[in-house]
Amino acid sequence: MTVSVSVLILAALLLFFAIRSGRTTIPTAILAALVGFLLASSTVAPAINNLISTTTNTTNSVTRSSGR
Predict the structure, then answer these.
(1) CA 25 to each of CA 2, 4, 34, 42: distance values in angstroms, whole numbers, following the listed order
(2) How many domains does the chain divide into?
(3) What is the pLDDT of residue 41?
(4) What's the half-sphere exposure (Cβ side, CA atoms, 13 Å) at 57?
(5) I need a labelling partner for 52 at 20 to 30 A (CA). Which of 17, 35, 40, 42 fits?
(6) Helix/strand/coil for 30
(7) Four-residue CA torsion sign, 61, 62, 67, 68
(8) To 5 degrees, how large is the angle CA 30–CA 33–CA 38?
(9) What is the mean pLDDT of residues 37-43?
(10) Residue 68 pLDDT > 60
(11) Residue-number span of the structural domain to which 20 is assigned
(12) Distances (CA, A) of 30 to 39, 52, 58, 67
């Protein structure tokens, strides 16, 4: 299922303002999970996965080269 970008942006904005208000409640957590599921089913998901994998690999190689 492909999610429209407008639904994803609306949910992300709602999450941003919910977190910005300073009150982290159960509905905010549910909204965060919803944004995660929407991102996972969007066409942007492969790019996000690639970015996370690249960042993880880079971090691991820097950590190994520093001897830690």
Answers:
(1) 29, 27, 14, 26
(2) 1
(3) 81
(4) 6
(5) 17
(6) helix
(7) negative
(8) 125
(9) 83
(10) no
(11) 5-65
(12) 14, 23, 32, 40
Q: What is the torsional sign of CA 30, 35, 38, 40?
A: negative
- Please state, in angstroms and rounded to a whole number, the distance separating the CA atoms of residues 57 and 17: 32
The residue with tokens 């996965």 is 49
Q: Are 15 and 28 in contact (CB under 8 A)?
A: yes
Provide the pLDDT for residue 4. Answer: 74
- Residue 60's contacts (CB-CB under 8 Å, 6 or more residues apart) are none
Per-residue pLDDT at 51 exceeds 60: yes
Contacts of 15 (CB under 8 A, 6+ apart): 28, 31, 32, 35
* Residue pLDDT, tens place only, 1-38: 556 778 888 999 999 999 999 888 999 999 999 888 88
